[in-house]
Specification:
Blueprint lengths: L6 E4 L3 E13 L2 E10 L4 E6 L3 H4 L2 E2 L3 H12 L9 H13 L3 H17 L4 H22 L3 H11 L3
Antiparallel strand pairs: 1-2, 1-5, 2-3, 3-4
Amino acid sequence: MFNVGDKIVYPMHGAGVIESIEEREILGQKQNYYVVKMPVGDMKVMIPTGNIGDIGIREIIDKQQVDKVFDILGEHSINVNSNWNKRYRENMVKIKSGDIFEVADVVRSLMLREKDKGLSTGERKMLNSAKQILVSELVLAKNMNPFEIESIINDVLRI
């Protein structure tokens, strides 16, 4: 169980800080929810406290793991499938995993592919989503603002 003030990651949505734990009645059923403020996009999300294991909620990464994320972003080899559909599915699985290192790999490969060959509309949306998830966690882990984090990502990728 998490507490108010904890920094957590909600897979497919990104990282945020628990502002409160509230009991709400939805569809006639009372349940406790974490109210999480997301630093990117200035949005709040309510997560049922009883589902955190199923959803994959986890604590944010520490400073050593941040370095590993930047190492992954700095690799310039792209080992992706040339079949758009298969590549898209593989990347979606990585993003849904909630693993920051897998998300970093998706961001790196899509940003490098965009620079080299361009992206389809679907992959561009995927890149934006994955980048937002990555940035939201790095913002909290490094205590920086989103613009600084995006600038570091672009520098590491030399874009």
